[in-house]
Amino acid sequence: MATFLHRLGRLAFRRRWYVTLLWVAVLVAVGFGAAKAPAAPDATNSMPGIESQKAFDLMEQRFPGTDADGATARIVFVAPDGQKITAADHRKAVETLVQRAADGPQVAGAVNPFQGKAEAKAVSEDATTAYATVTYKADADDLTDAAKHRLESAIEQARDTGLTVEVGGTALETQPSAGGSAEAIGIAIAAFVLLITFGSLAAAGLPLLTAILGVGVSMASIMALAGAFGLSSTTGTLATMLGLACGIDYALFIVSRYREERAKGHSPKEAAGLATGTAGSAVVFAGLTVVIALAGLSVVGIPMLTKMGLAAAGAVVVGVLIALTLVPAVLGFWPNAVLSRRARRSGRIKEVKEVKEGGENNGGSRWARFVLRRPVPVLIASVVGLGALAIPVMDLQLGMPGAEAKPTSTTERRAYDDLAQGFGPGFNGPLTVVVDARNAENPKTAVRTIEERIGATDGIVSVSPARFNSAGDTAVFSAIPSTAPTSEQTQDLVRSIRADRPATEASTGAEFEVTGTTALNIDVAQKTQDALIPYLILVVGLAILLLMVVFRSVLVPVKAAVGFLLSVLAALGSVVAVFQWGWGAGLLGVETTGPIMSLMPIFLVGIVFGLAMDYEVFLVARMREAYVHGDSPSQAIRTGFRYSARVVVAAALIMMAVFSGFVGAGESMIKMIGFGLAIAVLFDAFVVRMALVPAVLALLGKAAWWMPRWLDRILPRVDVEGEALSHRAATPQTSQAPQATKDETHTQARAEGPTEGPTEGPTGEDTRPEFTSV
Questions:
Q1: How far is CA 510 from the centre of its chain?
Q2: Tens digits of per-residue pLDDT, 28-38?
């Protein structure tokens, strides 16, 4: 592996024009394909294998021609304090709005709350609140501006009469937003971190440039393939987030190793080859762990999640390929630009005197020595701290927040609150019951019996009259719970109705299923919860096997997996504490607490696992490299930290910057995802990898690198530590520069460093000059 990548890096450096033009051609080609491809399909919420989805499918089959996908607007009217909505002037204002809305374009129908039987259901008992429903022939994305403007103007006219008018539904729904600048904020912070890390604008800009190019290729590819594979416009969200973060990190490690090899006296081309062969090997296996974690999302069985995971995995693969080819190619254009300002301008060098304890003394080596002196206290503090943060997980409640989680500044949230106050908390989450009476002797009698039994269930406030299909063998009716859609009592109610179903079906001969948004969210939460353990076993198992191949060790991969579990549980516990319990919610702008998004644990496990293994590979691979080349176990830990700690910290800060940009979003779910991922990276990089990992390795000593002989023979050898390159690394290659004038040669020598091999002093010590490390 290392030898192949070394050759690839040298080839990309030498053929830099071809490599660069190839990537530009790829970007143009996929961009052209994206421009010519049909529009991305609308996001589908199909959830195969759950009862709610089966009921929806049955409704579509038995009620053909019903446009269930059309946009809706539920307009809520609240009379001024002390007044009734049924007063003549208020009633006239409501009816005028409904009439104006009904005459608008693309409208399928509008229900007047004061018309016929609707008044008994659409007006609250205290007559202070009423609602009207407007349905459209097109879905929300296809509504024209004229249709929306017609509805908005009618609402404004009703408000001018003194009524409080809010609108829910999908017709005028506020689209989720990441603040409009999440990516820009993340890139800006990443640029600052890179500049501080490298002290060079070129070194800071190169990872950003290549990462943005990679994200462009990935997103254009997703858009080009959207029609063929049914990828919605939301599929690329995760791909953008991870493609940007991983792309920057992978290029960062290549550039950092290139600077290190240049400081050892290697020519630019050889340094690019060695950087690609060593750090590039870690990039490949780190990328593989991320791909495994993302592709493993398919085991959950939710098509949308599977597509998002595979698209994001593709973006990570593109990031790896760009890091291995385009980064050394760009280094070939400006081989000295990424060096520190001191090295570029003055060519100042210093003589390296190797320290018996393992080399140059910097922040990473000093921290490693601190942990090595106190491994037990550091280990106990890390485990206890993460364990305490994970305690809230025991109270985890999964659900799918709706309008109640939106900011109070949105009309959807205000409409939700008005309906809950006027009609009860359960009105916003009705249960839909679909009755299949084909096998019943008397379908209408069977449906009536089911209505009565469900209506008599504790927790049900009312049941609507059943609506039959044209064949008269299938009926649909609604049941209103007495509790809010996301409450535990509503979940127990749905389970109770389903538990009593066998007796009801046996007595009536008809079958029924419970669906609706509330039941769907409950089913999705249960489905993801059931899939979490198999997903963990699959992903962690494959990653442990992969890390065994990388590190030739049994205990190091197991330690990596245990550390990941601690960090992800601590992150999930923090999410519960903030978004469910409300601790510090105000600081993040979270106005309403409630259940955690059903997909959050899966997202957190999948994404954070991949990123955690990134840090594990980059940090421990350097320790393994030092150990293979003769360092003692404790000295190998110091060497790994001396060379990798600063870069891993920078990579983690970049990840946190990208994810934290989403915390400023207006939507609670986006806040939750951004916060969860950012704090998970914080725990994993700064607690697990920087404290727990060296403490455990210090306690294990040589046993950390133990592997049974039979297993060592079975596993393939990939030479990630670059043992085959050790001879090259020890003998700097002379630069093959073209003929130049004496002044040009002197200037280049000052910038590129020494061109002679190592020399020995009187004591046999290596005294070759090296660039000052910044």
A1: 43
A2: 999 998 888 77
Q: Round the CA-based radius of gyration of the chain to a whole number and report it.
A: 31
CB 540 within 8 A of CB 576: no
Q: What is the pLDDT of residues 58-71, one digit of tens each?
A: 888 888 765 556 78
Helix intervals (H) in 592-632? 600-628
β partners of residue 462:
480
Residue 651 in tokens = 């990579």
| pLDDT tier at 319, thresholds 50, 70, 90 | very high
**Which residues have a Cβ under 8 Å from the Cβ of 742 and sit 6 or more positions away?**
none
The pLDDT confidence band at residue 488, using thresholds 50, 70 and 90, is confident
- Residue 625 φ then ψ, to 5°: -60, -45
106 is written with which tokens?
A: 């693309």
Q: Give 758's Cβ-side CA count (13 Å radius).
A: 18
Q: What is the 3-state secondary structure (H, E, C) of 425-493?
A: HHHHCCEEEEEECCCCCCHHHHHHHHHHHHHCCCCEEEECCCEECCCCCEEEEEEEECCCCCCHHHHHH
In angstroms, rounded to a whole number, what is the distance separating the alpha carbons of residues 434 and 431? 10
Q: Please give the backbone phi and psi of residue 166, each rounded to the nearest 5 degrees, phi first.
A: -125, 160
Give the model confidence (pLDDT) of 250-300 as tens digits: 998 899 889 888 888 888 899 999 889 888 888 888 888 888 888 888 888
Please state the rounded mean pLDDT for residues 402-422: 86
Q: pTM to 2 decimals?
A: 0.78
- The reported pLDDT for the residue numbered 626 is 85
At position 54, the amino acid (one-letter code) is K
Nearest to 490 by CA among 535, 520, 533: 520
Residue pair 309/233 in contact (Cβ under 8 Å)? The answer is no
- State yes or no: pLDDT of 762 exceeds 60: no
CA angle 76, 398, 527 (to 5 degrees): 110
Residue 228, classed as helix, strand or coil, is helix
Q: How far is CA 559 from CA 394, 555, 634, 706, 714, in A?
A: 24, 6, 17, 13, 22
pLDDT of the residue at 610 = 75
β-strands 398-399, 596-597: how paired?
A: parallel
Q: What is the DSSP letter of 298?
A: G
398-399/474-481 β-pairing: unpaired
Q: How far apart are the first and last CA of the chain?
A: 30
pLDDT at 499: 92
Q: How many Å apart are CA 510 and CA 517, to the nearest integer? A: 23
Cα 774 versus chain centre, distance: 33
Banded pLDDT at 120 (limits 50, 70, 90): very low
Instruction: Give the position of tokens 């992969």.
Output: 546
**d(C-alpha 225, C-alpha 235), whole Å:** 11
- The pLDDT tens digits for 553-579 are 899 999 988 998 899 999 999 999 999
171 vs 70, 107, 328, 354, 404, CA distance in Å? 9, 11, 50, 70, 17
Residues in the chain: 774
Residue with the bigger pLDDT between 732 and 367: it is 367
User: Encoding tokens for residue 55?
Assistant: 């009921």
One-letter amino acid for residue 374 of the chain: R
Average of per-residue pLDDT across 663-688: 84
b/e code 667-681 from CB counts within 10 Å (16+ = b): bbbbbbbbbbbbbbb
How far is residue 584 from each of residues 182, 391, 522, 576, 610, measured CA to CA in Å? 21, 17, 27, 11, 28
pLDDT at 770 over 60: no
Q: Which secondary-structure segment (H or E) carries 774?
A: none
- In this structure, is the dihedral angle defined by the CA atoms of residues 343, 348, 349 and 355, taken in order, positive or negative? negative
Yes or no: say if 259 and 279 are a contact pair by the CB < 8 Å rule. Answer: no
What residues contact residue 653 under an 8 Å CB cut-off, 6+ apart? 189, 193
Task: Give the span between the Cα atoms of 656 and 680, in whole angstroms.
Answer: 9
Judge contact between 83 and 126, C-beta under 8 A: no
